[in-house]
């Protein structure tokens, strides 16, 4: 039985690894960025950007605009306060992952 590493690459005669291009192509579109934010007083929300889905910008009855999304099967409503805890890059990657226009939230 071949080892796991043997399935990913093979060493050539000079001891260099030959990693298939398909390995890199498959992983290029997936963001491994980890976002960590204080969601509520008792809940710290930590997730990888690629775990977020079903994004929508929602107008609350009180006039607040929030980002609604699903993370690992649970619905979350991210307010401006939540987004302020994130860096610009983290916000941008999350908006791209969800396919929403983040300018509507700022």
Indicate how many domains the architecture comprises.
1
CATH fold label: OB fold (Dihydrolipoamide Acetyltransferase, E2P)
Low-confidence stretches: 4-9
The side-by-side strand order for the widest beta sheet comes to 5-6-7
Largest sheet: 3 strands, antiparallel
**What level of helicity do the residues show?**
25-40%
- Rg, rounded, reads 19 Å
Query: Beta fraction of the residues?
Result: 25-35%
What does this structure look like?
- The protein has 106 residues and is an alpha+beta fold.
- The protein contains 4 helices and 7 strands; from the N terminus they run αββαβββββαα.
- The longest helix has 11 residues.
- The chain is 27% helix and 32% strand.
- About 6% of the residues have low confidence.
- It has one domain: OB fold (Dihydrolipoamide Acetyltransferase, E2P) (Beta Barrel).
- The strands form 3 sheets. It has a 3-stranded antiparallel beta sheet.
- The radius of gyration is 19 Å and the shape is globular.
């Amino acid at each position: 039985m071949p080892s796991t590493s043997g399935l990913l690459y093979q060493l050539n005669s000079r001891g260099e690894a030959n990693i298939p291009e398909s390995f890199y192509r498959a992983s290029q579109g997936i963001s491994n960025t980890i976002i960590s934010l204080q969601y509520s007083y008792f809940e710290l929300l930590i997730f990888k950007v690629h775990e977020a889905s079903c994004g929508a910008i929602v107008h609350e009855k009180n006039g607040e605009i929030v980002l609604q999304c699903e993370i690992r099967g649970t619905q979350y409503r991210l307010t401006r306060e939540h987004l302020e805890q994130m860096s610009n890059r983290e916000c941008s990657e999350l908006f791209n992952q969800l396919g929403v226009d983040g300018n509507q939230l700022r």
